[in-house]
Amino acid sequence: MSVHDAVRSRAGDDQVRNVVLVGPGGAGKTLLAEAAVLATGALTRLGSIENGTTVCDFEDVERRLGRSVSLSVASIVATGVPEMTGPVRINLVDTPGHADFVGELRAGLRAADAALFVVSATDTAAAGGVIDGATRMLWTECAAVGMPRAVVVTHIDQPRGDFAAAVENCQLAFGDGVHPLYLPEDSAIGAPPTALVGLLSQTVYDLSSGTRTARPADEARRKAIATTRDALIEAVITESEDDGLLERYLAGEQVGFDTVVDDLEKAVAHGNFHPVIPCIPTTGLGLAELIEVICRGFPHPEEHVLPPVYTPAGAPRPALTGEADGPLVAEVVKTTTDPYVGRISIVRVFSGTLLPDVPVHVSGHFARFSGHPEDESWHAEHDLDERAGAISRPVGATLTGVGRAVAGDIVSIARLAHAETGDTLSDPADPAVLAPWVMPEPLLPVAIAARSSSDEDKLVQGLARLQAEDPTVRVEVNPATGQLIMWTMGEQQLEVLLDRFRTRSGIEVAVSGVRVAIRETLKGPGAGLGRHVKQSGGHGQYAVAQIEVEPLPEGGGFEFVDKVVGGAVPRQFIPSVEKGVRSQLDKGVNGHPMVDVRVTLVGGKAHSVDSSDAAFQMAGSLALREAASAAGVQVLEPMDAVTITVDDEYVGAVLADLAAKRGRVRGTEAAGDGRSSVQAEVPELEFIRYAIELRSLAHGTGTYSRQYLRHSPAPDHVVGRLRAEEEHA
Question: Among residues 612, 613, 614, 594, which one has the least CA distance to residue 526?
Answer without folding.
Answer: 594
